[in-house]
Amino acid sequence: MIGGIIDEKKVKNDPDANDVVSLLLGDPSYQETSDLIDDVIVMFFAGSKTVQGTTTNLITTMLHEPEEFARLKVETEGIMDKVKDDIMGKFDLESIQDLDQVKNFYLETMRRTSPAVASSTACMSRDVSVGGVDLRAGDAFYVGI
């Protein structure tokens, strides 16, 4: 499926396209379809897992902080009342623009509990010494967040 999308984007070669696949195809590093497929999959999982983890942490925090949960409910109840008869049709980006408490709670959750525990693995391109630790070209490493 992803390979088919990539093939379509290569054929169209639309210079005005601003989707991720088209942008990556413009990078000389992504001439092999397999490399592009790998990175698109990583981006998808990284994005969905971090949102899932942060949302889980937010819900858990609200269960342990009833006063904060009450503040959150006050802000969201008005919007939910407006969309309850057609949530899929009415609940859109515009309807949530004024949810300042939700945004603040979400940002605070990310500050308190990072959605990712480490960066992706990378390899050193040259020998370096960082904080007394010698890393050689080709050594793999990751950064704890």
3D structure, described in words:
It is a single chain. This protein has 145 residues and is mostly helical. It has two domains: 2-116, no CATH class; 117-145, no CATH class. 58% of the residues lie in helices and 7% in strands. It contains six helices and four strands. The strands form two sheets. The chain has a two-stranded antiparallel ribbon with strand order 1-4. Helix 1 crosses helix 3 and helix 3 packs across helix 6. The longest helix is centred in the middle third of the chain and has 32 residues, at 33-64. It is flat. The model has no long low-confidence stretch (mean pLDDT 86).
Task: Provide tags for this entry.
single chain; 145 residues; two-stranded antiparallel sheet; 4 strands; 58% helix
Short overview:
The protein is mostly helical and 145 residues long. Helix content is 58%, strand content 7%.
